[in-house]
Design goal:
mainly alpha
């Protein structure tokens, strides 16, 4: 099954407001940027941030807010990552003031995703778990949704499919709570793929049916991701329908995964020329996982064409790429990291309760 691409679809209606933090007036331009990001207008938010001058950041609160928003906008625009010290500055500030848990959780979330995607699995997961812990009592559905969805993908990447399903179900619950059909489509799609990975074809079919029932409501710019994942699921059961989905994606708004997926279908049909041309495009992807999948397909294609030396060379490159990925991941045990975090937090909570109980006994 092809890797489920993480897509966080944001659509929340918010009103512009001016709030006070530690008695200081929050920069109204930053509040507007936050509103644009929550509304899904990422391009506009990123451009507006570019017009904010350093002289307009008149307090530690403004700087922290700016760093957090810039990290979020850059991440969602696939721009080069901001210096990590910016997010660390924001985290230190929100920890210090102690009353803006949602911004603190958001800062931990983006730091976690940036670290994880740069190959630092352990610290990436720990920051995501911090975000989850802090957001536990939050009423911000958008924040909770993206944390749960990301943790589902992290566990999927690690092969921890049951834990990935657990988080995907939490993501689905937040989607149902919000009524956001875009989120619902992605949640159903993720659960279909994950159910298939643990051999639950009945559940996979159910979630796939639910996904297709809401797909027509998904904005075009996000539909391509869901269609690709649905197509990847159908490749071995209904190649004709999967092919139609991939062709639709490539005709409207191409994505790297669709090139590789469609190439696999053409290869199985015996259309080696088309398969080869599509794989050459997929091999140029910036995503290492997509390149590995394309090399795997290319190796099989070369074998089918009788190009033994080419297949051996591709296999060597694939092994080197896989080794590189393993080194980047540091062979971390994602499940152990999460369980250790949860156990530590539970122990800390228990110790606090014991301490409070002791004080109450003394008072009595």
């Amino acid at each position: 099954m092809k890797k489920v691409r993480l897509i966080i679809a944001l659509f929340v209606s918010v009103q512009l407001f001016v709030c006070c933090t530690n008695g200081e007036r929050t920069n109204t331009s930053l509040v507007q940027v936050d509103s644009l990001l929550r509304g899904g207008f990422v391009d506009s938010a990123y451009n507006k941030l570019g017009s904010v001058l350093p002289s307009q950041l008149r307090s530690e609160a403004d700087s922290s807010y700016y760093f957090l928003l810039h990290a979020q906008a850059s991440y969602r625009m696939y721009k080069p990552a901001d210096p990590m010290k910016w997010l660390d500055f924001a985290i230190r500030y929100y920890l210090k003031i102690g009353h803006d848990a949602e911004k603190l959780a958001s800062a931990y979330y983006y730091k976690g995703m940036l670290l994880y995607e740069n190959g630092d699995v352990r610290n990436g997961v720990l920051n995501l778990k911090n975000a989850e812990f802090i957001a536990a009592k939050s009423t911000d559905t958008e924040l909770r949704h993206k944390i749960f969805e990301s943790l589902s993908v992290v566990n999927d990447d690690a092969g921890e499919f049951r834990m990935a399903i657990s988080y995907a179900k939490k993501s689905l619950a937040e989607s149902e709570k919000s009524g956001n059909v875009n989120w619902l489509a992605h949640a159903y799609n993720n659960l279909a793929v994950l159910s298939s990975k643990i051999g639950r074809s009945d559940r996979a079919s159910y979630y796939l049916k639910m996904c297709t029932s809401v797909l027509r409501h998904v904005p075009s710019k996000d539909k391509k991701i869901v269609l690709n994942n649905v197509g990847a699921y159908l490749m071995h059961t209904n190649a004709t329908l999967a092919k139609r989905y991939f062709c639709q994606i490539l005709q409207t708004s191409p994505i790297d995964e669709a090139y590789g997926n469609l190439a696999s279908i053409y290869m199985n049909e015996g259309n080696y020329v088309k398969a080869d041309s599509l794989l050459r495009i997929a091999l140029r992807s910036a995503d290492m996982q997509i390149r590995c999948e394309a090399m795997w397909t290319l190796c099989h294609l070369q074998q089918k064409r009788g190009d033994t030396s080419g297949a051996l060379l591709t296999a060597e490159k694939l092994v080197a790429q896989k080794d590189s990925m393993l080194k980047m991941r540091n062979n971390c045990n994602v499940q152990a990291i999460q369980l250790d975090f949860d156990n530590t937090k539970s122990r800390q909570k228990y110790e606090r309760n014991i301490a409070v109980g002791g004080v109450l006994i003394l008072l009595l």
